[in-house]
Amino acid sequence: MAGRVLGSLIAVAQQKIASQVNLPSGYFVEYGGQFGSQQEATRILLSYGGIAIVVIFLLLYKAFNSARASFLVLANLPLALIGGVLAIYLTGGIMSIPSLIGLISVFGIAARNGIILVTHYHTLRVEGLSRDQVVLQGSKDRLAPVLMTAAAAALGLLPLLFGDIAGKELERPLAHVILGGLFTSTVLNMIIVPVLYSKYGWEKEEVFVRQLAIERGELLGGTER
């Protein structure tokens, strides 16, 4: 059983006890010690993760002065969640503390990719490009920075995937989740966010775009380009 994650050991123990042990009425099994501490840490991390998402939204709203643009950036978070959850499923299906930390960590990278795209879209729009030009040109311009951000993080985590797991019991699950989240958020970010921006991020962004244009001294007319 050496090298096993604590959560998987408890899951095996719970399954065997449930199938092989008949407890008298009024008796039950309670798991404490390190597992109990892990469960408490999980609850705390989930709470902090929710707080982190709210704080990210508030910071985005402060930066963009637009709830719509902020939600477009936050659309990257579920895209990262897809890869993270899939990585957990493919590597044993155990949601451990390192896995949760990995999910929270990859949210930051996913949000940064969204910021890179949406900010550049707004910049191109101020320059007078049409909707299709903004989406196509902006996505092309920011493809390399988004890929470089993901590649830099992935290369730093790859060594944790190889070799004996001894000594990497905490780091390897974290690496699995971050790499899975990076893959889906990077790929889907370049597909879904441009579509969402074209459909939902254009019509009602006039106030923000005009404010940005005023700051640059390039105020555009009120007609849509």
Provide an overview of this structure.
The protein is an all-alpha fold and 225 residues long. 75% of the residues lie in helices and 0% in strands. It has eight helices and no strands. The protein has helices at residues 6-20, 33-64, 67-74, 76-90, 97-126, 131-157, 171-200, 206-216. α6 runs antiparallel to α7.
Features:
225 residues, mainly alpha, 75% helix, disordered C terminus
Helices and strands in order:
Layout: H1 6-20, H2 33-64, H3 67-74, H4 76-90, H5 97-126, H6 131-157, H7 171-200, H8 206-216
Helix pairs in contact: 2-3, 2-5, 3-5, 3-7, 4-5, 4-7, 5-6, 5-7, 5-8, 6-7
Radius of gyration: 23 Å
Classify the secondary structure makeup into a structural class: mainly alpha
Tally of contiguous helical segments: 8
- Percentage beta strand: under 5%
Task: Characterize the main sheet.
Answer: none
- Beginning-to-end CA distance, first to last residue: 64 Å
Task: Give the low-pLDDT segments.
Answer: 218-225
Average pLDDT, rounded to a whole number, is 76
Order of helices and strands: HHHHHHHH
The shape is elongated
